[in-house]
Amino acid sequence: MPNDAETVSLAASNGRQSEPCTFVIFGITGDLAARKLVPALWALHLEGRLHENTQIVGYARSERSNTELRDSLHGALQTYVGTVDQAAWDSFAPRLHYVRGGYGDTAGHTELLAALDGLGHPRRLFYTATPPETYEDIVNAMVASGLAASPEGGWTRLVIEKPFGHDTKSAQQLNNVISEAFAEDQIYRIDHYLAKETAQNIAVLRFANALFEPIWSNKYVDYVEISMMEPMGVEGRGAFYEAAGVVRDVFQNHLLQLIALVAMEPPSRWQANAVRDEKVKVFDALEAPSRDDVVFGQYDRHGDTPGYRDEDGVTDQSNQATYAAVRFKINNWRWSGVPFYVRSGKRMGAKTTEIVLNFKKPPHVPFALKDPLKADRLVLRVNPDEGIQFVFNAKQPGQGTNLGRVSLDFAYEGRFDRSPPDAYETLLLDAMLGDATLFMRADEIEAQWRIVEPLLNGSGPMADPHFYPAGTSGPDAAERLLQAAGHAWHDPTSTS
């Protein structure tokens, strides 16, 4: 059997269908399964990418029958997807099965094993759509019951949801437990941001076009911005956010992965180990930020919008950060001297995730200009309105040399025959195909914790945050973080 980690990538995009397998969802009755996993499997079914013999087995602690599970998931699809075609549902519903048991319950796992043996597929994919504190219990029960063993002539794979640990020590502990039960090429640590179309397109933009890679370095790039802004608050997850904060929630995973995709060297081939080797090199070169490189914030009440301390599950004296802006430095030949400014916040004025490469100005401009020359800018929009924009200078019509800003724009919507698939649709198909390129390796996870852990010790959530009104662009101190170097955050609504 080929090594899973070396399976050729791009399987989902070239029309390949999944192998017949049994897809087991631990936590089938939970929110993640209803909102993301089952809709993704449903989409693959509609597209003909989910093999007709693939079965879906849900496992959870609540009592219910196969019929009750199917009815509840039918309702979830109507809620999160929309109208459900009856003929398509009639062919999808028989795939769905249910087994009841505790996540760390060996007896329940033994019953699950018997159910899987009854379905007859030697290929099995297990997905932990459960609270992170259950992951070790699930793995230990899988080992004790025999679920972790690959059937003869088949395979067993385990998909682990984030968060993967809450610090370096816990991540190492979880890696140790999982690696005792599974080989690394059986483990799929998921970060759905890696499957966003624009995130994947970073590599294509750089490595499949002669124009961009030669200028993708400190010779031409002045500074890089990565922003992930959300208009919503903690959405009823106050207790979770009190423990996580913005650093654990998005910096340790999504944002560091975006840095790696922007900064990595060209891999020898687009396969799992080659790609992940290059990302680990970026993490090794990333300098842990000092206190002067960080601004923490917390959203405050503004009009009728509650502040963070007003949210359920949050103490009225909480200093947890709902916003952070961090200046990262990459100590290698390509990026030395180029700051990477990364920010994320809750209760912001608009929803946007984008990567901006700000280029250096030409060393000499021969024109007599009334206004200062603006630098070229490449904007990669990850969310919403996925696409790419290149902004540069051009002469305005008329007498004299007056410059104006123009742009070249590419948007996924309307350009291709189909809209970009949901990230989970791509990731689930890749996992069934054995393509681990968009998943994280053990050393990646531990390196990411090493980078952000200083932000959690003394200078992190325990420090007094800068308060900002809900619905605004964040604390003023975040602007000053860039102003000292003559830089400024990109306005996502600007075309200049």
Rg, Cα atoms, Å: 24 Å
Task: Spell out the helices and strands N to C.
Answer: EHEHHEHEHEHEHEHHEEEEEEEEHHEH
Supply the CATH superfamily name of the largest domain.
Answer: Dihydrodipicolinate Reductase, domain 2
Instruction: Please state the structural category.
Output: alpha/beta
How much beta, percentage-wise?
15-25%
Main beta sheet strand tally, sense and closure:
10 strands, mixed
Described by the principal axes of the CA atoms, the overall outline is: globular
How many β strands by DSSP?
A: 16
Q: Which spans have pLDDT < 50 for at least 5 consecutive residues?
A: 1-13
- Count of the separate structural domains: 2
* C-alpha end-to-end distance: 53 Å
Structure, explained:
- The chain is an alpha/beta fold and 496 residues long.
- The chain folds into 2 domains: 4-189, NAD(P)-binding Rossmann-like Domain (Rossmann fold); 194-420 and 440-483, Dihydrodipicolinate Reductase, domain 2, CATH 3.30.360.
- The chain has 12 helices and 16 strands.
- It has helices spanning 31-47, 66-80, 86-92, 106-119, 135-145, 168-181, 197-207, 238-263, 272-285, 423-433, 442-456, 476-483, and strands at residues 22-26, 55-60, 96-100, 123-128, 155-160, 187-189, 221-229, 286-287, 294-300, 323-330, 340-345, 352-359, 377-383, 387-395, 403-411, 466-469.
- The strands form 2 sheets. Strands 7, 8, 9, 10, 11, 12, 13, 14, 15 and 16 form a 10-stranded mixed β-sheet that branches. Strands 3-2-1-4-5-6 form a 6-stranded parallel β-sheet, with helices on both faces.
- Strand 1 (22-26), helix 1 and strand 2 (55-60) form a beta-alpha-beta unit.
- Helix 8 (238-263) crosses helix 9 (272-285) and helix 8 crosses helix 11.
- The chain is globular, with a radius of gyration of 24 Å.
